[in-house]
Amino acid sequence: MVGMVSRLSLKKRKQRICGWYLSCGNGNLYSHIQDKPINYLRQQCYTDGTVIGVLMKNGELSFSLNGVNRGVAFGGLSDDVVPAFHVRNSGCEFELL
Prior knowledge:
With 97 residues, the protein is mainly beta. The chain has one helix and eight strands. It has one helix at 7-11; strands spanning 2-6, 19-22, 28-31, 38-39, 52-57, 60-65, 68-74, 81-85. A five-stranded antiparallel sheet has the order 4-3-2-1-8. Strands 5-6-7 form a three-stranded antiparallel sheet, with no helix packed on it. Strand 2 and strand 3 form a beta hairpin. The longest helix is centred in the N-terminal third of the chain and has 5 residues, at 7-11. The chain is globular.
């Protein structure tokens, strides 16, 4: 998963970290404020060489897949968010630019 998380939630170690994410396993969007995932990419995006871009601008979070902007995923985010990711499989490689 890749996305953004509130700085405040990172400081609260006893609470589950909340945020706004894109799942690379199914292309769905997840957040702590919605009950169900949102179908966003309609495809998996974890094959070798896949490039996922994350853009946070004016309170809107967007993702791109291999250079193609997929549009606004979440809106109304505050300025206190930072990039976040979660890797579940061993042997995965990633690069932050």
